[in-house]
Specification:
With 138 residues, the chain is an alpha+beta fold. It has three helices and six strands; from the N terminus they run βββαββααβ. The protein has helices spanning 44-67, 108-120, 122-127, and strands at 9-11, 17-20, 26-28, 75-84, 91-100, 132-137. The relative contact order is 0.13.
Length: 138
């Protein structure tokens, strides 16, 4: 792959900071309360969810334009969960990708668009075979 753009960020763990090389991201990190932390910062799962949702929504726009489908009123929400991975006893991730669609994309039409987007999205490609991703039309 020939890189068009490279994002660079540095972090020092779940109880520290995440900083991008251009300074646009400079966030305190903390364990969420569900993992025993104080919840006084963001966490990797939230950052991954935001990135995946944004990438998926943009990819959906590309796919929709190719299919001549209007997605101007659509939105995408990524729910990233962390839990114990039974395969190795460590931790693993799963994602529920929810698309809120207008009436003309309810049912099978919306699900077909989500499947095509999932095949096209760079985040989906990067995680394929590594984490479970459920696609939901709302």
């Amino acid at each position: 792959m020939d890189a068009i753009y490279t994002a660079v960020a540095t972090a020092n763990g779940r109880e520290g900071r995440a900083v991008s090389s251009d300074g646009r991201i400079d966030l305190p990190l903390a364990h969420p309360q569900a993992l025993g932390g104080n919840g006084q910062g963001t966490n990797p799962e939230q950052l991954f969810a935001a990135g995946y949702a944004a990438c998926f929504a943009s990819a959906m726009g590309v796919v929709a334009r190719q299919e001549k489908i209007d997605v101007s009123e659509a939105s995408v929400t990524a729910e990233v969960s962390i839990g114990k991975d039974p395969a190795d006893g460590g931790f693993g991730l799963s994602v529920v990708m929810r698309a809120e669609f207008p009436d003309h994309l309810q049912g099978e039409a919306g699900l077909t668009l989500l499947k095509k987007t999932h095949a096209f999205c760079p985040y989906s490609k990067a995680t394929r075979g590594n984490i479970e991703v459920e696609l939901v039309v709302e």
